[in-house]
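[job 0412] stage=fold_complex status=start
inputs:
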Amino acid sequence: MKLMSSQFKTVYINTFQKEMRNKSILILLALTIAIIFIFNAAFGFFSGLLEGSPLPTDGAIGKFPLIAFYTFLESWSVLIAVTLGVSIVQSDEENNVIPQLLSFPIKRWEYLLARILGGWTIVILYYLFSISFAQFLFFMSAKVFLASEQIIFAVVNSCLIVLPAIFLSVFFTLFTNKIFAFILTFLSTSVITWANLSIGSASISEILEKLDGTSFFAGGIHYLLPRVGVLNSFTNEILQGQNLSFGLYATTYIHYAVSVVLFFLFISVLFKKKDF
Amino acid sequence: MLVIDAQNVSKSYGNIKALNNLSLNVAAGSVYALLGPNGSGKTTFVKSILGLVKPDGGDIKLNGIESTNVECRDGISYLPEKFNFFPYYTVLGVVKFYGAMKGLKGSELEEQAINAVKSLQIEDLVSKKIKQCSKGQVQRTGIAAMLMGDSKLLILDEPFSGLDPIAIKELKDLLIELKNKGITLFINSHILSEMEKLCDHAAILDKGEIIAQGELSTMLNGVSLEDFFYTKVKK
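[job 0412] stage=fold_complex status=done
writing structure:
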C-alpha cells in the first residue's frame, strides 16, 4: 500500500505553487525582513554603546532581547499561519476549483491534509528563513552566532504551535469568510492560551474539586485542544534557561499529538459533509 | 454494462427539491444527454454522481462501485459548466496537473499532455497563462485536461456554453471522435440542436424529476428534439 497517493502529492505541491503567490504572505515576508533589519540595527547601536566590554556568547543580546526576538518571530509565524490557513481551502472555493479537485479519485481527508501540510511546510520554511536571516545579520554585525540547544528547541516548538493555528483557521473557513475566520482564529488561539494558563499544571481531580462554569470551560479546552499556551510557555522557560521535568514534556507532547489528530478527524468529518 | 446506475436519488435544499426520486442508467459506450431547463437539477445530479453533493436518499453507482467510494472516480473525467483553474497556471500546466491527479508521471505525463493539447489544437497556447486566455481557450484547456489519463467516462456540464460557433463545431467533432473510440459521454446541456446530432440516449429533467428518458430515436418517434422537449417541459 502506498503511503501517499499521487493525488495527495499533486495537491501538496500545488499548495506551494498557490500560496507562494499569496500577496498577504509576500507582504508579511517583506515586513519580517524589514523588522529583522531594524532589530539588527538596534542591536548594533546598543552594542556600540557597550564597545570595549567583551561580548558574551548567548548573552550577547541578553536574555530579554533573545526572548523578545523569538516571541516576535513566533507570533509573526502564527500570523503567517492564520493568513495561510484562511486561504488554503477557501481560495479553492473562490476560484471554483474545488469541485474539479474533488472530482478526482482523492479522498476528502487526503485533500484537506495535503492542503494543511502544504501550508504548514510553507510556515516552517518562512520561520526557518526568518531565523537564519536574523542569525546571519547578527553574525555579520557582531561576529556572534546565536545557536544553542535552547534556540533549536524554541524553533521546533514554534513549528508545532503554528499547526493548530492552521487547523483552526481552516475549520472556521468551513463556515465563514476569510476575514471572520481570521478574527475567530485569533480569538480562539487567545482563549486556548488563557485556558492553558488558567488550568496550568492542575490535575483533573484538582479541577473537579473547585469546578465552576469557568473552570469547566477552560478545562474542556485545555484537555480537548492542542495546548499551544503550554508549548509557548515551554519556549520562554527554556530560553530563560529553566529546566523542565521530562514528565511534563512527555505529557504535553503526547497530548499535542493525540489532540491534533483528533482535531483533524473532526475537521475532516465536517468537510466530508460539505456540498460543493 | 452500466457505467452510471442511479436509483431514486433525491436532494433538497431547504424546501426546494433539486432532485426527486431520480433514476437513470447509462450504458458503456453511449452518449447520454441530460436535458432540462435552467434550474431543473442537472448540475446537482452531476455533482451527486461525483460525490460533490451528498444526496438525501437513493443510490448511485459508477462502474458498479458506490459513488461514496473514491475508487469509482478512477477513469472518469469531469468538465464543470464554467471551467476555471488557478490563473497563474499555463495551459500546459493545467493539462499536466490533471494528468498528475490521474496518477500519470514522467514521460507518460508529458506525452499525453502534448497529445491532449494537439487534439484540441491549442499547441500554440501551451505557455499562455489561464488568466490571459479567452473564455473559449479556457474551455478548450479544460477539455484537453479531461482527455488525460485515458478516461472511459467523460462527464461534461454544459460544454458548449460560452463557445463560438467554430469552437462548438470543433468540440462536437471531438466528442464524436471520442464516442467512436468507445468512450462514454454524459452531457448536461440545454443546447438541443447540438445534442440531437450527438447523443444516442437522453433524459429530460424538469423540477428535479425525469419526465422522459430512453433511446433518442425511439423517444422522439420522428419529432425533433426541440419540439419533443418543448412539449414535455411545457405540459
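[job 0412] summary: The mean pLDDT of chain B is 90.
[job 0412] exit 0
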